[in-house]
């Protein structure tokens, strides 16, 4: 089995073979070359702004080319929780942003002619335990009444039309969600940003960020750059350069395996409608087909990716996949890889301005759609001066309770164990 990102074998990813010198002065410097940074850069460049993307590795290196490609509606916390916390009006706006986010991906893919297989496959949320299904009918009524959003309950006896597994106890389908190949998409987004006039700089890790009068001086591994405004889109890789933001973001590992190509018949049996599928556990599995391969992900280890966590995850995920789909018992797993997700302490996405620096972070597994859309809308707000009006800027961006976190997530093993306990009892 290769410790390699399968998606990277499907496209010529941007590389660092032809580095151009860093410009000395720009209007905007964007830190991070993923969906957030590239979407923002494309938007800014289209509005005539001189914008440079500074990326520590290669463009698209982070979560944006490693994810499951699920382009989902909704937020990480349930919409019932969102209403309880923020009230109906704001909850409606926040949910609408999630729908707009999927539209943004669809529109950008079409406008820029990005060949990444985007389609509205719909997502399927499956009940891992019989009693998890109990609330599904209420959930459908709630989403319809509060958000005018139609989702459909799939009772247990009809689930075979959606998934070739007897492991689950019913589901909910949301036809608005989509799916894509993330490496092809992020590569297309990079080309689109460049075509619009943005400059993209690989191997330009930002080491220091300082105010100098009305501007910022940004020290990178490839020289300094002066910019009037800065946007941080570093997601789960947010480091000590933006210490205040780092202390608000928990980096959490997520891992994926990809099987060899399956026969058409077997692929159709596993997922007849090509849905983006995820389950109702805290330690959840998410899976989907791409090019007749089963792409099966999960939070097999909590710590971010390294050789060790990836190797251990490969076996855990293979066992999980066979538990869901015994049909795959003898199928070869060809690839395994990992990446880092960004969770805020309230599980919400946050955008705003801190010490004059703009940010968009905390996608909690919803970044394919949200990072694409918020990169764009935060960029617009930077130009129009109205970031405070953004729906995702209307609530606090909390840090750790008692401030007990300096950027190293020492509590992850405990959090992981706690989630396993919750999965056992709930
Ligand atoms: C395994 C996995 C599966 C996932 N599945 C899904 C899914 O199916 N659906 C979904 O919606 N979301 C999913 N996600 C989450 C989604 O991929 C992310 O939310 C999204 O890609 C975030 O994009 P981004 O541009 O903000 O960050 P990233 O793509 O992570 O990019 C951040 C970049 O910042 C760079 N950087 C960091 N520090 C510096 C610095 N000091 N100087 C310069 N550059 C720096 C990093 O090198 C990195 O390339 C998944 C994530 C993972 C890891």
Outline the fold blueprint.
Blueprint: E1 2-3, E2 25-31, H1 35-46, E3 51-54, E4 70-71, H2 79-86, H3 88-111, E5 123-126, H4 136-147, E6 152-154, E7 171-174, E8 178-179, H5 182-196, E9 199-201, E10 206-212, E11 215-220, E12 223-232, H6 243-246, E13 249-259, H7 264-270, E14 276-279, E15 285-290, E16 293-298, H8 307-324, E17 333-344, E18 350-354, E19 357-361, H9 367-384, H10 412-425
Helix pairs in contact: 1-5, 1-9, 2-3, 3-9
The site of flavin-adenine dinucleotide has 43 residues, from helix 1, strand 13, strand 17 and helix 9.
Distance between the termini: 35 Å
- The mean pLDDT is 94
Task: Please tally the helical runs, counting DSSP H or I stretches of 4 or more residues.
Answer: 10
Q: What is the chain-wise order of helices and strands?
A: EEHEEHHEHEEEHEEEEHEHEEEHEEEHH
Q: Which ligands does the model contain, each kind named once?
A: flavin-adenine dinucleotide
The stretches of 5 or more residues where confidence is low (pLDDT under 50) are none
Please provide the count of β strands. Answer: 19
Note the overall shape. globular
Describe the overall structure.
- The chain is α/β, with parallel strands linked by helices.
- The protein has helices at residues 35-46, 79-86, 88-111, 136-147, 182-196, 243-246, 264-270, 307-324, 367-384, 412-425; strands spanning 2-3, 25-31, 51-54, 70-71, 123-126, 152-154, 171-174, 178-179, 199-201, 206-212, 215-220, 223-232, 249-259, 276-279, 285-290, 293-298, 333-344, 350-354, 357-361.
- The strands form 3 sheets. The protein has a 9-stranded mixed β-sheet, sandwiched between helices.
- The two termini are 35 Å apart.
- The model has no long low-confidence stretch (mean pLDDT 94).
- The site of flavin-adenine dinucleotide (FAD) has 43 residues, from helix 1, strand 13, strand 17 and helix 9.
């Amino acid at each position: 089995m290769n410790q390699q990102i399968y998606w990277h074998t499907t496209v010529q990813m941007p590389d660092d073979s032809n580095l151009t010198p860093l410009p000395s002065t720009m209007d905007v410097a964007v830190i991070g070359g993923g969906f957030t940074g590239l979407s923002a850069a494309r938007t800014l460049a289209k509005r005539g702004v001189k914008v440079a993307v500074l990326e520590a590795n290669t463009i698209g290196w982070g979560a944006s080319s490693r994810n499951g490609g699920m382009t989902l509606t909704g937020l990480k916390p349930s919409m019932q929780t969102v209403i309880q916390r923020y009230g109906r009006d704001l909850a409606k706006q926040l949910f609408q942003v999630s729908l707009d986010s999927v539209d943004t991906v669809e529109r950008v893919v079409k406008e820029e002619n990005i060949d990444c297989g985007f389609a509205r496959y719909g997502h399927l949320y499956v009940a891992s335990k019989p009693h998890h299904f109990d609330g599904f009918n209420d959930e459908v009524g709630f989403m319809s009444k509060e958000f005018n959003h139609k989702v459909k309950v799939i009772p247990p006896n009809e689930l075979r039309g959606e998934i070739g597994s007897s492991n689950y106890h019913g589901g909910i389908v949301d036809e608005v969600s989509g799916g894509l190949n993330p490496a092809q998409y992020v590569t297309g987004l990079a080309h689109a940003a460049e075509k619009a006039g943005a400059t993209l700089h690989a191997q330009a890790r930002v080491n220091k960020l300082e105010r100098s009068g009305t501007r910022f001086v940004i020290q990178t591994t490839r020289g300094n750059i002066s910019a009037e405004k800065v946007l941080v889109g570093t997601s789960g890789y947010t480091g000590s350069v933006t210490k205040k933001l780092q202390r608000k973001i928990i980096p959490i590992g997520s891992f994926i395996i990809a099987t060899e190509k399956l026969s058409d018949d077997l692929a159709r049996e596993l997922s007849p409608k090509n849905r983006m599928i995820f389950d109702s556990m805290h330690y959840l599995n998410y899976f989907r087909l791409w090019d007749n391969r089963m792409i099966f992900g999960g939070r097999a280890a909590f710590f971010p990716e390294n050789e060790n966590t990836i190797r251990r995850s490969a076996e855990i995920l293979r066992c999980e996949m066979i538990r869901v789909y015994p049909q795959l018992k003898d199928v070869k797993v060809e690839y395994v890889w990992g990446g880092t997700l960004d969770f805020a302490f309230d599980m919400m996405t946050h955008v705003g301005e801190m010490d004059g620096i703009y940010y968009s972070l905390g996608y909690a597994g919803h970044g394919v759609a949200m990072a694409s859309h918020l990169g764009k809308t935060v960029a617009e707000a930077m130009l129009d001066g109205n970031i405070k009006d953004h729906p995702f800027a209307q609530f606090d961006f909390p840090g750790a309770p008692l401030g007990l976190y300096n950027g190293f997530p020492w509590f992850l093993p405990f959090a992981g164990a706690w989630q396993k306990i919750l999965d056992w009892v709930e």
